[in-house]
Amino acid sequence: MGDQLVTKRLVPYILLIPAIIVFAVLTFQPIIYGTYISLNKWNWREGGFNSIKFIGLQNYSATLGDIEFWNDLVHTFYFAAGAVAIEFFLGFGMAILLSQQIRGGAFFRSIFIFPLMISDIVASLMWKVMYDPTLGIINYMLSLLYLPTPAWLSDPLTVIPSIIFIDCWWQTGNITLILLAGLLSMPKTPFEAAVVDGASKLQTFRYVTVPIMKPVIIVALIFRTIDCLRVFAIVFGTSFGGPAHMSEVMQLFIYLVGIGRFLEMGHSAAIAILFSLIIVAIVLVYRRMGVRI
Known about the structure:
Blueprint: H1 2-38, E1 40-41, E2 53-54, H2 58-64, H3 67-98, H4 105-113, H5 120-131, H6 137-144, H7 159-184, H8 189-196, H9 201-229, H10 233-238, H11 250-260, H12 265-292
Helix pairs in contact: 1-12, 2-12, 3-7, 3-9, 4-7, 7-9, 9-12, 11-12
């Protein structure tokens, strides 16, 4: 009887073994191979696989001493901080409105989902046309109002804000749906108790809604931060890092070093490993914030 009970308890774990093996291979094999490549000098122009030569940590030291790496890291943080902040506050506000069971709520939820159906490269090309300084609809509407018509994607001061706006249009609905799901799943008892205690709506939001929503908020922020730090297609399809590298982000830098410009595969892998470690550190900070909030 005891052996049968032990066997019964082990069955779920045994059934998970194939999935765990596949997950481990798909996850750790690229990490291990990428780390190996990062320790080698490998220029595809110099003979393909035959040009691989072990050089230790030289790719990492070269990356840390490269001013372009640090500039692109700043550009990436600038984009991610702006996009995540705007999307979070807009998404939270819209989620609160939609959670009130207003008339036509299903229609508005469908509107928020619609941009998510568009791929990132399609969204970037669509907005690139609208941002065009001479043919774009945006500058045309501004000219009708006698307002300035900037060169949105050609001006160092406006290029990253313009790309942030594209991402906000594209992904605010994502964070709205995540937060809306959290709001609709909250228990009613704490809110009824707050009403009995005479709490105002602001106090109820600060001391009841936010603490209950904390896990959902942290998850939403982690997902959007990781996605924004990994931004590639929107920049690739609009400014391609210009003007003068002022909108070049880390993923584009990795692409240009490894494939698009220099074919330095080892150097590109080292940049990717360092950037991945930075993302892991940011996620750990978010988790720490979740404990303190």
